[in-house]
Amino acid sequence: MPTGVAIRDPRQQLFDAAERILLRDGPQALTSRAVTAEAGCAKGVLHRHFADFDAFLAELVLGRIGRLDAVSEGLRAAAGTGAVTDHLTGALAAVFDAVGVAVVSLVIARDELRARLRAAGCAAGIPLLTEAAATLAAYLAAERDLGRVAPGADPAVLASTLLGAAHLLYADRESPAPDASAVRAVVKTVMASALR
Question: Is the pTM of this model over 0.85?
């Protein structure tokens, strides 16, 4: 960046650049040099705002995890209304949007990143998916309390099963994302014995 030219919100500019690289080239292409080049700024800008590249990546992932709050709020508000399968289908689509799928791949590929995320308070497992499972489990527990999910159903097991099955639908970056009917079919199958 030329001297004297201010970068507006450089942190967000770097995060946006990282997401573009993830979507276009995948997690293996995500380097500090690639991010700063994509953002159109000097490499020093990243290191001025983050301790190192893994700290930057950890904040990128924590930002995605933070977006689950909106999913959680939507599910809480929907409990007791509409179709449980529709709510779950929508939530899974939100978790596994294109950037979400790329972030999951990034987290799986980088051991140091997972260690940083655990140090930041993320639970064991795959950060983002673990938090998404907790969000779905809380919703399913609420529906169970309302009598719309069978009393003997285990919300945590159902949530993990839903996420695993949905991830298989979304995981191939080279193919188009599945349509809602394919996701709904998985949800209906997983939830078949649990819905009342």
Answer: yes
